Automatic annotation (TrEMBL):
Entry protein name: VOC family protein
Coiled-coil blocks: none
Provenance organism: Streptacidiphilus cavernicola
InterPro entries: Glyas_Bleomycin-R_OHBP_Dase, Glyas_Fos-R_dOase_dom, GlyoxalaseI/FosfomycinResist, VOC_core
Residue ranges constituting the VOC domain according to the UniProt record: 8-123, 141-259
Cited CDD domains: BphC5-RrK37_N_like
PANTHER family listed in its UniProt record: GLYOXALASE FAMILY PROTEIN, METALLOTHIOL TRANSFERASE FOSB
SUPFAM superfamilies: Glyoxalase/Bleomycin resistance protein/Dihydroxybiphenyl dioxygenase
PROSITE patterns (UniProt xref): VOC
One Pfam family from the record: Glyoxalase
Length: 311
């Protein structure tokens, strides 16, 4: 059996120039709970998630995606992953060892082929979480993270070979080729996805709501707060999940979603979906059609590559 060290998505981390504005957005508009802060570093949890935090925000003069973090099954899996990465010539940012972030644990960091930092950890203490109530329009958990890559096929193969991700579905266009690979590390349709883009960057990060009612109420709250809606509300075909995409104060795309498909992995076969079919992008037909301008909104700014964040 192929080694599958990654069990789930933990969090993603951003660096931003306007720290206080970003901090207020995640707390007051997006519905996350600030659980820790330390002189220019803030951590945000989702009330329904056992993860210590799902977003980290760091103050910096330069905007960037600091890292994406995944959970591993055990300390032994973290050590084995490090050994296999080193043997494959992958550059480690931090060798396996104890972590000093909220919840502790044992983990490592490395550069993926695009130059973004990836963290994989085990034995992180869980956070006391709770059931999200009916009509309570705050995120239950971090659903998935999508990145832009100029070489998405190479990145897809790296995450499959080294982290054990499985390809779930592919979006394609007859004139542009493959445009997005949906990757899973558990029964959820995707926890990670790779989009074809003009440069390496964060495409979007998605937050799961309790249900469609809560998803629509959260969408409405963000709109009333003046947050820019870039696409949605709608419902994708791949993953069968709802979508409302917004820009945060620094132009990163964040999404409210719900009802992401849960697969029977023994029976699932990866599908190919043509983006020129309107039903692929939005089954409901409520969102604007996918266009060049909508796609550009998710390209984001070019990221800082092969440079580890200071924390």
């Amino acid at each position: 059996m192929t080694f599958q060290p990654v069990t789930h998505l933990r969090h993603f981390a951003l660096a931003v120039p306007d720290f206080e504005r970003q901090r207020a957005f995640f707390r007051d508009t997006w519905g996350l709970t600030e659980v820790a802060d330390d002189s220019g570093l803030a951590f945000f949890a989702a009330e329904g998630s056992p993860e210590q935090y799902v977003v980290r925000v760091r103050k910096d003069r330069q905007k960037r995606m600091d890292l994406v973090a995944f959970g591993a099954g055990s300390v032994a899996d973290v050590d084995r992953l490090a050994t296999e990465l080193i043997a494959a010539g992958v550059a480690l940012v931090r060798e396996p060892g104890p972590m000093d972030t909220p919840g502790g644990g044992y983990g490592l960091r490395f550069f993926d082929p695009d130059g973004r930092v990836v963290e994989v950890s085990a034995d992180v203490a869980t956070r006391t979480h709770r059931r999200i109530e009916e009509r309570e329009a705050i995120p239950v958990r971090l659903s998935h993270c999508v990145v832009n890559s100029r070489q998405p096929e190479r990145l897809r193969d790296f995450y499959a070979r080294h982290l054990g991700f499985r390809l779930t579905d592919t979006l394609y266009s007859d004139h542009m080729g493959d445009l997005m690979y949906f990757m899973r590390c558990n029964r959820l349709h995707h926890s990670f996805a790779i989009a074809r883009g003009p440069h390496v960057s964060l495409h979007h990060a998605s937050f799961e709501m309790r249900g469609v009612e809560e998803y629509m109420r959260g969408t409405g709250r963000a709109l009333r707060a003046g947050t820019r809606l870039t696409w949605g509300p709608g419902r994708h075909l791949a993953g069968d999940n709802t979508f409302s995409y917004f820009h945060d104060p620094h132009g990163n795309t964040v999404e409210y979603t719900t009802e992401l498909a849960i697969l029977d992995e023994d029976l699932w076969h990866p599908g190919r979906h043509d983006v020129d079919d309107p039903m692929v992008q939005d089954q409901w037909g409520t969102a604007d059609p996918m266009s060049e301008s909508v796609a550009k909104d998710q390209f984001n700014d070019p990221d800082v590559l092969f440079t580890a964040p200071p924390v």
